[in-house]
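Case study.
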Amino acid sequence: MRTFLLALAFAASCLPASAEEVVLGLSSDTVSINTNFDGSEILIFGAVKRDAPIPSEPRLQVIVTVAGPSETKTIRRKEKRFGIWVNTDAVEIDSAPSFYAISTSTLLGLSLSQTEDVRHRISIPRAIRSIDAPAGITDSEAFTDALIRIKSKSNQYQLNEGKVSVDEETLFRTSIALPAALTEGDYQTRIFLTRGGAVVAQYETSIYVRKVGMERWLFTLSRERAFLYGLLSLAIAIAAGWGASAVFGLFRR
Amino acid sequence: MQIYLPIAEVSVNAFLLLGLGGIVGILSGMFGVGGGFLMTPLLFFIGIPPAVAVATEANQIVASSFSGVLAHFKRKTVDLRMGTVLLIGGLFGAALGVMVFNYLKAQGQVDLLVKLCYVVFLGVIGALMFIESLNAIRNVKKGKAPKRKKHNWIHGLPLKMRFRVSGLYISVIPPLIVGVLVGVLAAIMGVGGGFIMVPAMIYLLGMPTKVVVGTSLFQIIFVTAFTTMLHATTNYTVDIVLAVLLLIGGVVGAQIGARIGVRMKAEQLRILLALMVLIVCGKLALELLLQPSELYSIAAGGH
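After joint prediction, the assembly is written out as follows.
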C-alpha cells in the first residue's frame, strides 16, 4: 500500500513568483476497493519550495483536506406528536461530501482565519453547502450540526488537529485513514499553506477510489444489465436452497 | 473476516452475516415465515442502507423459503392447490398494495404508517394467537379433544373446491380474499407476509398447522422473487454479495428449522410464533414511544 507511486509533481501556482509553493507526494493516488477492502490509509507528504529565505514570523502552518464526491442529503428531525416519535421537520442539504477529512499542523482556529475559511471552504461546516431552510424552520444550523455529528461518529468526517507534522517549516507529512464504508469517486485533495491565518499557497490533486475485480463487475452488471442481474440473484437463491435441501437429504439416509 | 459489499458500499463481517442468516433461516423453516420482518431491522442495525437491506432481504427469503419448501415437500405438508389460490390473490393484492404505497408516499409520513401498521397487526395477531394456543395447550392437558373444523358461514359460500392435503372442502373465495389482503399489506410493509398469512390460514381458513407452514413458504417464494426483480430493475438495490452471505446461513437454517417444526406439537409451534410476533411488536412500539438517542436522521437525495 505504501509504495510511493506518484512522483513529486509541481503546482501551477497563480501566486507571485517570490511566494512559497507546495511540492506534493502521495503514498498512492488510487485506492482499489476489492472484496476484502477494510479501509485504507493514505500517506500525504510534501515540501515547501521557496526562492526567498524562510520568513521569520508568522509561523508556517499546513492544512490538508480530502473530500469525497458530493451528495444531496435530506436531514429529518423527530418530534413527539400524540405520544409517539415521528419525523416532522426536514432540511435539504444541497451538497455534502460523502467523506471529508481535515488535518492541520496546529489548532484549526489558529491556522486559518474566518474570512479565508469562507473563501476556500476548508472547515467541515464550510464544506457542506445548504440552501435556505424551508419556511418555519428557524434553526437550520441544528440540521447541519446533526449531519456532522452523525458522519463524525462513523469516521466519515474527521477533524485531525495537530496531525500534520512540519519539519523546519519545509517538510510536512500526514496520514489520513479512509473508513471501510467508502464511496467510489474522485477524492479531491487540497493542501493549504497558511501564515497568520492567511492562505499563502494552495495545491490540489485527486485520489481515485475505484472498485476493482468482482466488485467492479457486479456493480456494472447491476446498473447496465439490471434484469440479468436480478435473474442471476434469483438463480443463486434457488440453487442454494436446492443445494442445502439435497445435502440435508443425504445426511438423513 | 471483512467483506466489502459492492452495492451497499459498506464493509461487513462475513461470519456475523452467516450467523444472522442461520438464525432467521431456522425461524423461517419452523414457522413458515420469510423472516424479513426480523432480518431487515437487524441489517439496518449493522449499517446496511435501508433500501439495500429491504431489497436484498427479499432475495435471501427466496433461498430460505425454497430450501424450506423442499423439506416440506418430502413430508407432503405443502398444499399446492391452496398455495396457488393464495398466490393468485397475493400477486393481485401486491400490485394493489404498490399503488396504495405510492399514494401514501406522495402524502408523506409513509414510514410512520408502516410502523403503525406493524404494531397494530403484529399486536392483534400475536395476542389472539397467544391466547388461542394457550387455551389449546390447557385443553390438551385436561384431556379434552380439540374442537376442529367448525362449521361456519365460510362453508356456505359458492365455488367450492377440494383441498385434499389440508383436508378441506371450501369455497375459493375466502383464500382468494386472504391472499389479496396479505398481498396489500406485504407490499405496503415491504415483507413477504408470512407472519400474517400463517395465522390467517390457521384461524380463517381452518387449515392444519403443519400444512400451513409449507404452503406459506411455497407462496412466499413467488411473492419475494417478484419483489427481488422489481427492486433489481428499478432501484438497483439488490446486493448479490450480501444476499449470498445471508442465504448460505439461511438455507442451512431453514432445513434445521423444518425438522424442528415437524417434531413439535402444533399448539407449541403456534405459541412460539405468537411470542415471536409479540416481541417484534413490542420492540417497534418502544421505538415509537421512547425518545430516540439521535433525533436526526440522514436520507439520501432531495425531497
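Observations recorded in class. Strands of chain B lie at 2-4, 11-13, 160-163, 168-171, 296-300. The first helix of chain B runs from residue 14 to 31. We will return to this complex in the next lecture.
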